[in-house]
Amino acid sequence: MKTILTGDRPTGKLHLGHFVGSLRERVKLQNSGEYDKIFIMIADAQALTDHADNPATVRENILNVALDYLSVGLDPAKSTIFIQSQVPALFELTAYYLNLVTVSRLERNPTVKNEIAQKNFETSIPAGFLCYPVSQAADITAFDANIVPVGEDQAPMLEQTREIVRKMNELYGEVLVEPNIFLSSNETCRRLPGIDGKAKMSKTLGNCIYLSDDAKTVAAKVKEMYTDPLHIKVSDPGHIEGNVVFTYLDAFCEDKKTVAEMKEHYQRGGLGDVKVKKFLLEVLEEVLTPIRQRRTDYEKNPAAVMEILKAGTAAANEKAYEVLRRVKRAMKINYFE
Ligand code: ATP
Ligand code: MG
User: Fold this and answer.
1) Which of these, 205, 194, 203, lies nearest to 13 by C-alpha position?
2) 41 with 7: CB under 8 angstroms?
3) CA 306: distance to chain centroid?
4) CB within 10 Å: which end of the chain, N or C, has fewer?
5) Which pLDDT belongs to residue 122?
6) Inter-axis angle of helices 256-268 and 244-252, to 10 degrees?
7) CB atoms < 10 A from the CB of 120, how many?
8) Contact between 22 and 157 (Cβ < 8 Å)
9) Mean pLDDT of the chain
10) Of all atoms in ligand 1, which is nearest to the CA of residue 47?
11) 77 phi and psi, to 5 degrees?
């Protein structure tokens, strides 16, 4: 069996980083027909680990994320889209996995460390937040997923999951499937920088182009995009390292030859930022236009979108419950069976 599980936190609308890091790969994998099962999770319980005081944001964004999914071409006939908090088996599994992980191991997780600093959690970390990698292990293993298409920031989570799987299998017999990370083959896409040049486009940092932005907004964002501060006159030689306009061309433009020529010209001098940005905008619009069109159709009928989530959640519950029963049997906590 080849099974995929991946997901996103409903903490905002999805952006171009999500698109190249994970969404675009998911749609490709979905349409390859090579996978038996594809589970796509809206991770609302995980979002609450750092949004406990703001549940309204999480609730609102369930529909936004679902619309983003359907707009990029995730197809409910091929992929099961579900809501994490509505699958109780995930929380039972988390409780058992927590016994196999130490607090110091959780504190060493580089992504979590980063996020703790970003959110000013240093002096007081919500326990649920520190433990979210364990709940992610439950999300992945509850579906017997062996492939997890995500961005690079998720590598430590996959490593943690693999450790838990090995420990479970060692203690209780071969009960869980060990998953593999699936990173985009295009290195630029594994961690897309923000329009401000910061290392990661992220909802939290507010440096995003959203899949739902209209053409005018995208044009304005491209205009303010970080380039090379030393490239003052058009005739000056420019730098492409750290110049996000070129990074985005690497991530989005299929015509690699034209991009290579533009890079060469820019470095030599004589190619202005305005021209490169105009080209990037065309490339982005080609990607975003069909996404917007699909969104318009689904937006007209939010009740139908909620029905898709309800049906997906029922299917997810069935599979997760089956795995939970298998785990409890292996742990010999199936007293009444
Ligand atoms: P938050 O700030 O709430 O954590 P986020 O923007 O990091 O939001 P997530 O929902 O945490 O988004 O991540 C969902 C998926 O998108 C993960 O697989 C993650 O690796 C991927 N992803 C997020 N941002 C990027 C990015 N800039 N480049 C590539 N992949 C990304
Ligand atoms: Mg994140």
Assistant:
1) 203
2) yes
3) 21
4) C
5) 85
6) 160
7) 8
8) no
9) 97
10) 3
11) -75, -20
38-90 pLDDT per residue, tens = 999 999 999 999 999 999 999 999 999 999 999 999 999 999 999 999 999 99
Residue 192 Cα to ligand 1 midpoint, Å, equals 9
> Tokens standing for 217?
């907004």
Of all helices (H) and strands (E), which one includes residue 298? helix 273-299
**Can you tell me the distance from the alpha carbon of 313 to that of 79, in angstroms, rounded to the nearest whole number?**
11
The percentage of residues in the chain with a pLDDT greater than 70, rounded to a whole number, is: 100
User: For residue 291, how far is the Cα from the chain centroid?
Assistant: 17
Cα angle for residues 290, 295, 296 (degrees, 5° grid): 100
Structure tokens at 250: 């690497």
Q: How many CB atoms neighbour CB 280 within 10 A? A: 22
The confidence score (pLDDT) of residue 204 equals 82
Per-residue pLDDT averaged across 277-295, rounded?
98
Residue with tokens 């594809």: 38
The whole-number average pLDDT for the span 7-15 is: 96
How far does residue 58's CA lie from ligand 2's centre (Å)? 14
Residues with a CB atom less than 6 Å from ligand 1: 8-9, 11, 17-18, 21-22, 150-151, 153-154, 191-192, 200-204
- Bridge-based pairing state of the strands 37-42 and 3-8: parallel
